[in-house]
């Protein structure tokens, strides 16, 4: 536990109370499902910027990315973070416009529009699984233990519970509004932390003098193959359910495009500063002002709390909590929408009223939170879980959604269904196989299985399953064309 | 001052000032939206 002053606790408590207040304010103000789930499709560019940035950046970015910066240097930004901006640009200029051409409400809605019910249900299932907030809750547990000295389970319950309350009561308006407050907090505290961290280690030049030269090599010691693997994780943005939800909730395509283009500069700045902060933590370890036992994924937290004065530490902790809350609330809401709009409505009650749909969405939010809580307390390998969830989503939706959006003649129900189902099942089977037959490598934090003398990491699964999904798509097309 | 440091200060300014400017525009928009919320959903 890090030593905190009373003022720090007061700031954190005021912040958490404010979040609940926002949710309660919106509690009775929704009159239809579109308003509850998509904020009435009225998000402007500034609201989109704040909600996109705060949602997509959880503490996995804050601590995960900085882990690489702590151990390898600037390659964390040049090799890992920077390529994802290219995907954001593709999303801004190519994907968002297509997605706005129809009144979609969710990712499975697109699959239904192009391929019918079967593909929709597969999409709803994978989107729901992907959106379970296990990682966010786990992050809350870790933060509560490390920063506040609480039991991780209590931390998950209390901090995650606050995000649950305002999401359940306030819907997407509460999520968007709290995201915006959380956005400014997380950006400001990171910007403020830089001069304090530099003062703590004796200036930027100390970092250049003490760190190995490889820390300033833009490609570092990582081989090009690993960099390609890291960079390709940015593909997930092209089928990210919370990202889609914000595109659908925007006032117009222009709002989305402008928000993403402006957002890239803010994302880039944020990523670069946390990279430098992690490198300054490494410098402090070399200088002996921080203990050598600092864990790479706790480097950022350690240097910032050591360097910042009382009061600003409280702001920083509130900013870190913000980072995670903005992620948790958004995913819970998407999962709730999958249960109500994508499964309950078409499968059980097509004529459902908006009021009932909102109620079922709230049950779905609660269900996703409970399942996420169960997973977060039962599993230890969170990185492996994240890889599993991401590969399920990408493998089952990337091919049918992109082909459906861009090639009209490919919009055949069987093609979409076989593609999504084969992507889903091959991912589940391969992941289970690797976790059962492989060995866990603590240094890589992943399962590895050896095939034909080559080490195959769990992260590589989607390089097999996406082609399977593509093959499934064309098999479906072939069967349909023969049937015609 | 090295190029690395100059670049870092530029990103600090971009993140700090950029986020405040975006937030100010957000406040302007949200005030308008909240007023409409109070008047009634149909005007949204």
Please, could you describe this protein's structure?
The complex is a heterodimer of chains A (about 475) and B (about 45). Chain A has about 475 residues and is an all-alpha fold. Chain A has helices at about 5-25, 35-40, 45-55, 60-70, 75-100, 105-115, 115-130, 135-150, 150-200, 205-210, 225-230, 240-250, 255-285, 300-305, 310-350, 355-380, 380-405, 415-435, 460-484; strands spanning about 440, 445-450, 455. A three-stranded antiparallel sheet of chain A has the order 1-2-3. In chain A, strand 2 (about 445-450) and strand 3 (about 455) form a beta hairpin. The radius of gyration of chain A is 22 Å and the shape is globular. The mean pLDDT of chain A is about 85. Chain B is mainly alpha-helical. Chain B contains one helix and no strands. Chain B has one helix spanning about 5-40. Chain B is rod-shaped and about 55 Å long. Chain B starts with a helix and ends in a 5-residue tail after the last helix. At the A-B interface, helix 3, helix 9, helix 10 and helix 13 of A face helix 1 of B.
Shape of chain B: rod-shaped
Order of helices and strands of chain A: HHHHHHHHHHHHHHHHHHEEEH
- In terms of per-residue confidence, which ranges of chain A show pLDDT below 50 for 5 or more consecutive residues? none
The percent range for strand residues of chain A is under 5%
Contiguous uncertain segments of 5+ residues of chain B:
none
- CA radius of gyration of chain A is 22 Å
Strand order of the largest sheet of chain A: 1-2-3
Alpha-beta classification of chain B: mainly alpha
> Which chain pair shows the most residues in contact?
A-B, 38 and 25 residues
N-to-C CA distance of chain A: 67 Å
Number of strands of chain A: 3
* Share of residues in helices of chain B: over 70%
Number of DSSP E strands of chain B: 0
Give the N-terminus to C-terminus distance of chain B in angstroms: 51 Å
Order of helices and strands of chain B: H
Helix/strand structural class of chain A: mainly alpha
């Amino acid at each position: 536990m890090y030593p905190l002053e009373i003022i720090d606790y007061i700031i954190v408590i005021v912040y958490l109370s404010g979040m609940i207040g926002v949710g309660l304010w919106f509690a009775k103000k929704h009159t239809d499902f579109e308003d509850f789930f998509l904020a009435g499709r009225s998000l402007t560019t500034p609201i989109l910027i704040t909600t996109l940035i705060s949602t997509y950046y959880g503490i996995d970015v804050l601590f995960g990315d900085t882990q690489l910066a702590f151990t390898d240097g600037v390659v964390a930004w040049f090799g890992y973070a920077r390529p994802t901006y290219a995907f954001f640009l593709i999303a801004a200029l190519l994907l968002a416009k297509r997605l706005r051409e129809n009144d979609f409400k969710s990712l499975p809605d697109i699959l239904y529009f192009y391929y019918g019910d079967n593909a929709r249900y597969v999409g709803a299932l994978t989107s729901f699984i992907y959106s379970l907030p296990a990682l966010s809750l786990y992050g809350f547990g870790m933060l509560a233990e490390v920063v506040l000295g609480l039991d991780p389970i209590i931390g998950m319950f209390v901090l995650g519970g606050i995000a649950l309350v305002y999401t359940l009561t306030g819907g997407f308006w509460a999520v968007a509004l709290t995201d915006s407050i959380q956005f400014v907090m997380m950006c400001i505290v990171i910007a403020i932390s830089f001069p304090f961290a530099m003062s703590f280690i004796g200036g930027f030049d100390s970092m250049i003098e003490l760190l190995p030269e490889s820390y300033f090599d833009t490609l570092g010691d990582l081989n090009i193959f690993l960099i390609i693997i890291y960079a390709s994780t940015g593909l997930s943005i092209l089928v990210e359910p919370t990202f889609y939800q914000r595109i659908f909730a925007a006032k117009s395509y222009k709002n989305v495009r402008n928000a993403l283009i402006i957002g890239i500069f803010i994302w880039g700045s944020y990523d670069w500063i946390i990279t430098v902060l992690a490198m300054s933590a490494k410098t402090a370890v070399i200088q002996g002002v921080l203990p050598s036992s600092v864990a790479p994924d706790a480097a950022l937290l350690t240097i910032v709390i050591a360097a910042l004065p009382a009061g600003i530490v409280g702001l920083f902790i509130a900013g870190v909590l913000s980072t995670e809350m903005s992620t948790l609330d958004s995913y819970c809401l998407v999962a709730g929408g999958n249960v109500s709009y994508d499964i309950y409505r078409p499968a059980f009650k097509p004529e459902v009223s908006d009021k009932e749909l909102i109620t079922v969405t709230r049950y779905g939010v609660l269900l996703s939170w409970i399942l996420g809580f169960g997973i977060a307390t039962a599993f230890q390998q969170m990185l492996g879980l994240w890889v599993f969830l991401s590969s399920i989503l990408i493998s089952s939706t990337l091919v049918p959604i992109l082909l459906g959006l861009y090639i009209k003649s490919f919009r055949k129900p069987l093609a979409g269904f076989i593609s999504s189902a084969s992507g889903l099942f091959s991912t589940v089977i391969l992941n289970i196989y690797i976790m059962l037959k492989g060995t866990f490598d603590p240094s890589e934090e992943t399962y590895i299985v050896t095939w034909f003398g080559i080490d195959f990491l769990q992260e590589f699964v989607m390089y097999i399953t996406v082609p399977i999904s593509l093959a499934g798509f064309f098999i479906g097309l072939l069967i349909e064309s023969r049937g015609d | 001052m090295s190029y690395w440091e100059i670049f870092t200060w530029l990103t600090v300014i971009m993140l700090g000032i950029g986020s405040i400017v975006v937030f100010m525009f957000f406040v302007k928009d949200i005030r308008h939206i909240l007023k409409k919320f109070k008047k009634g959903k149909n005007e949204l």
